[in-house]
Amino acid sequence: MISERTRLRMIERLRQQGIRDERVLAAMYEVPRHLFIDQALATRAYDDVSLPIGQGQTISQPLTVARMTEKLLEGKASLGKILEIGTGCGYQTAVLLKAGAQVYSIERLAGILDKARVNLRNAKLVHARLVHSDGHQGLPDAAPFDGIIMTAAARHVPPALLDQLQTGGRLILPVGDQEQFLWLYEKTNNGIQKTKHEAVHFVPLLPGKQ
Ligand code: SAH
């Protein structure tokens, strides 16, 4: 059993680490993170670490999930329609859903996507559209998006993703190879504005689907 206290401790740690948006903290308090990882690792579910989720992929550490969600929400009344690339175990998807987003999420590995579907169902969060596809192309049928979040590291920003952003929309993603940084792209009436944020460590964005 994962106690209430364990979950609260994660939220308190996120506050100390500088997360201020109560909407993000509430969503992360409510999502049972231990349901998204293997039982053998469940005791570490609320620690500030990334953990393996199979097929060489990882669930991001809580601070990174919080930071990226906070960046999408900053100065906004709501998240609106969000495209996630790299569903993984579905934890970030769950946090976005709890924070009120309408979520489309793309994963290139069918086996991982199946697990995410089970995890999200166990967490009673069934409203995301999960798509087995290569995220480089985005999801033109459902575009434009108010926000796009990519949870695998790209060498270069896929141009389709910027095309599929609404004016006023934001794209947050890790860019780099060995050395990676979070970048925020905002589509304004005057074009794209980009800002560089902290160093991160994500698995790479890979081509094609399997
Ligand atoms: N947000 C996830 C993080 C998963 S790790 C979580 O909370 O668990 C990144 C995921 O991106 C992996 O599952 C990987 O298979 C996926 N991925 C990598 N390249 C991709 C691509 N081109 N399109 C879609 N998914 C991709």
Fold blueprint:
Elements: H1 4-16, H2 22-30, E1 51-54, E2 57-59, H3 62-73, E3 81-85, H4 91-98, E4 102-107, H5 110-122, E5 129-132, E6 145-150, H6 159-163, E7 165-176, E8 180-188, E9 191-200
The structure holds S-adenosyl-L-homocysteine (SAH).
The site of S-adenosyl-L-homocysteine has 24 residues, from strand 2, helix 4 and strand 4.
InterPro entries: PCMT (IPR000682), SAM-dependent_MTases_sf (IPR029063)
Main location: cytoplasm
Enzyme class: transferase
How are helices and strands ordered from N to C?
HHEEHEHEHEEHEEE
Shape, per Cα inertia axes: globular
Could you tell me how far the N terminus lies from the C terminus, measured between alpha carbons in angstroms? 35 Å
Order of strands, widest sheet: 5-4-3-6-7-8-9
User: Please, how many domains?
Assistant: 1
Strand content: 25-35%
CATH architecture: 3-Layer(aba) Sandwich
Secondary-structure-derived class: alpha/beta
CATH class: Alpha Beta
Fraction of residues in helix: 25-40%
So, the CATH homologous superfamily?
A: Vaccinia Virus protein VP39
> Rounded to an integer, what's the Rg over CA atoms?
16 Å
DSSP helical segment count: 6
| Number of DSSP E strands | 9
Examine the coordinates and then state which fold CATH places here, giving the name of the CATH topology: Rossmann fold
Bound molecules: S-adenosyl-L-homocysteine
Any overview of this molecule?
By secondary structure, this protein is α/β, with parallel strands linked by helices. The chain has one domain: Vaccinia Virus protein VP39 (Rossmann fold, 3-Layer(aba) Sandwich). The protein is 29% helix and 28% strand. It is built from six helices and nine strands, in the order ααββαβαβαββαβββ. It has helices spanning 4-16, 22-30, 62-73, 91-98, 110-122, 159-163, and strands at 51-54, 57-59, 81-85, 102-107, 129-132, 145-150, 165-176, 180-188, 191-200. A seven-stranded mixed beta sheet has the order 5-4-3-6-7-8-9. Helix 1 (4-16) packs antiparallel against helix 2 and helix 2 crosses helix 4 (91-98). The termini are far apart. The relative contact order is 0.14. The mean pLDDT is 96. The structure holds S-adenosyl-L-homocysteine (SAH). S-adenosyl-L-homocysteine (SAH) binds next to strand 2, helix 4 and strand 4.
